Structure prediction request, 67 residues.
Amino acid sequence: MPFRVKFPLTLAVALVAVAGWFYMGYLGQIGPQWAVAFLGPFTVVSLWIFPEVARQPSDVKAPKKAP
Prediction:
C-alpha cells in the first residue's frame, strides 16, 4: 500500500480510536473503553507491520464457463 494511502488511513484509525475512547468514557463503559484503547493502537501497528497481500497471476483462477 502506498505511503500516501497508508498515512491518512493511519490518521483516520487513530482519530476514530481516540473518539471511541472518549465516547465509551462518556457512556461509562469501562470495559469497552479499554478494548478501544488496545485495539486502536494494535490496528495502527498492524497496518504498518504486516505487508499487503500481492496476488501473483498464477493465484487468480479463471472463471469457469457454463455449459
In short: The two ends are 39 Å apart (CA to CA). The mean pLDDT is 87. Residues 3-27 form the longest helix (25 residues). Helices lie at 3-27, 30-49.
